Every structure is written in structure tokens, then in C-alpha cells.
Amino acid sequence: MEARDLRVSDAEREHVGELLQRAVGQGMLSLGEFTERMDTALAAKTRAELNVVLVDLPGIQLISEFTPPPYPDQPYVSRPAPPVPPVAHRSPAPPPGDVIRGRMSSVSRTGSWNVPPALEVNTRLSTVTLDFTRAVMSTQVVHVTIDDYASTISLIVPEEATVDLNGVETVGGSASNKVRTGPPIGPLHVVVRGKVRFGNVTAKYPFGTSIRRMFG
Fold it and tell me: Domain residues of the chain, as ranges?
């Protein structure tokens, strides 16, 4: 079997996404072209299909030949791991929790759903709605970690809740907090961190809240 016919992993698809992001930053791709190529990359099954989105980008390419690991139990590593910062300067990591994944799809958590202390949102070209207004909480503080490419993520919280979006890094996207922030003062405080690339994350109250306050 030729290298071009080998199957690709999620890690390789995400690496190509980073390369496409770099191409946008260098002015080689528009946001529309980035979205189209990300769509192709996420659907790619072989290296030949994956390389199609990079072939016309000078100086940006995937590893020329993918070599399978010498032993099945030893994963292939294409890039060295980044250095680990000193413990004294590291932000406290949220506790492990549930993972919400979406690939070119629509994902929602609404109604009386059970909310764990921590959630991870791992999405690509998706629409995600997390509605906490009638959710069953196990803790006052909920940690949400986001790893996203070109998705729309909405956090809907009750009126007495607070949300912290200060830990969200955006690249060609946005993070908009339309609710109260600061330390926990009510039954729910959502702490959001992570990275959003060419997407957006919004924290807001349910529709009609501002009108009820105006006439309440």
C-alpha cells in the first residue's frame, strides 16, 4: 500500500486545520476558502484526500510521507510535544468531565439535563447550544473547556447565574459575554476557557429576559 492511501487520524486532520489557519493569517486564503477546505479536511479518510487542501499553498504542507509506528502499541508522533511550563505558572486545570463532540453537526443540551462539574466541548464547523436554565446542577461552579474550529457555541444561563469568559482565546473569532461576570454570587457560575478559531462563543440569558426586567 502506498503512503497516499493510508488512513488519517483526527490528530492529522486537526494539524491540517492549524496549517490552514496559518494560511489565512498569511493572506493566502479567505475565511470562505478556509471553511470550505476545513470541510474537506474533516471528511478526508486518506492522506491523498487530506493533502488536496494544501497542495496549492506554498511553504505549507503536511509531512511528505507518513510512516506507520514500528510497533502497534507505540503511537506515531509527528511533532515534538511543547515544553511544559513551570508548575508555579500553570493555571489550575478543571476536573475531568464529559466530552461533547461535534463534526459538521448540531449539538444541544436542553431541559432537565444533568450537568457535571466539568465539560469539554470539542467541535468543528458545528452549532452547539448548552442551556443551563432548567438543568440539574451537581456543583455551583461548572468548568467548560472549548477546543473549536469555526463553530457557533451558545451558553444560555438563568438570570441569577454568572459567566467568566476571560480564559477563552480567539483566533479570527469572538467571545461575547452578555450576562453578569465576576465571582460566583448565585447558584451557578460557569468558567469557560480554551481556544476558538474562526468561530464564536456567546453567553446570554434566555430570550425575553431583558423585556421582563424592563417591565418587571
Answer: 1-74, 87-207
